[in-house]
Amino acid sequence: MTIAIETRGLTRVHGDTRALDDVSVRIRENTITGLLGRNGAGKTTFMSLVTAQDAPTSGEIEVFGERPFENARALEQMCFLRDNQRYPDDYKLIHALRAARIFFPNWDQGLADELVELFRIPKKPIIKKFSRGQFSALGIVLGLASRCPVTFFDEPYLGLDATARTHFYDVLLRDYAEHPRTIVLSTHLIDEMDRLLEHVVILDRGRVVQDSTADELRGMAHQVSGKAQAVADYVAGRRVLSRHSIGGLATVVVEGRVTAEDRGAAAASDLELGSVTLQELVAAYGFDGADTPTHRPEPLAAAEHSARADTGLTETVAAVASDEPTSTSPRKGA
Ligand SMILES: Nc1ncnc2c1ncn2[C@@H]1O[C@H](COP(=O)(O)OP(=O)(O)OP(=O)(O)O)[C@@H](O)[C@H]1O
């Protein structure tokens, strides 16, 4: 088993915010990993640090056994498509594709052309004029056609219509099956992307709260619903992950698999036991402990941080003059 990404005690502090706090994970080569967690959990920070677009406050990172910071060999293996990827003002689709073709050693122009058609990405307007969905689609094209050994997608679906999202999931799975590689993606559309994920890392307030295969995770907790007192009796002594109540009824997510004994206890108290989806688990692990109404408002999304470093593809994009002829070279400087 080869480890593609390993972090040890990875920490990033901004003022009094611990964006990442002592994160130690090992992500196996040739897996699709979902980086999940509520707004501000640290997902983008993790991806920025691993791709050396930001420097940790402390801790270590290895990508295929090498430290990525200022390491061209390690950086060349990675592609990070941010949800707010930046391109030069005058760039059109062709310029972004040209830059990607130069930058990424495994770039597949045929796949890029196919995806441009599939997602109906316009060729004439500058990228700045793209709709949110067209902008995301461009990121998906660059991320998939780059065929990087390690590819990060940060909420790649923003603004995509349902058809385009389905295309993305299908093409990702098809291309991954044909060209296995390590893919890490952050998402809030967990139910929709559930089928893509083999491994899941859940972050909450910068810390890892779960790190396991998706299958293991699904079986790690269950839900019990019924009269509040009966539910309270059932969950006594168990680790409660979330609790919701309406009137005299309660629904609680508890850690642990359902045993035969649990089924008996539930039946005797007229309680319903159910499985928990990945989406519910993420919500449960990001739960603050107090009993909450079922329709709990989400906190405001974390602000965008314009001061973030922006390197990698963006640097290359900026370096490619927009009036250069299209390069047929697959490598920068080749
Ligand atoms: N440059 C920065 N300066 C100050 N705070 C920052 C900076 N970058 C990140 N943070 C803070 O670190 C925390 C983690 O942010 P991050 O963007 O990694 O979260 P996220 O899980 O990607 O969130 P979302 O799902 O909302 O995109 C947040 O509290 C955020 O406000």
TrEMBL record:
CDD domains, alphabetized: ABC_DR_subfamily_A
An annotated Gene Ontology molecular function: ATP binding
RNA-binding recorded as keyword: no
Domain of life: Bacteria
UniProt region (Disordered), positions on chain: 289-334
Compositional bias annotation for Polar residues: 324-334
This protein's UniProt keywords: ATP-binding, Nucleotide-binding, Transport
Keyword ATP-binding: yes
Every ABC transporter domain range: 5-230
Gene3D superfamilies according to UniProt: P-loop containing nucleotide triphosphate hydrolases (3.40.50.300)
Name of this chain's protein: ABC transporter ATP-binding protein
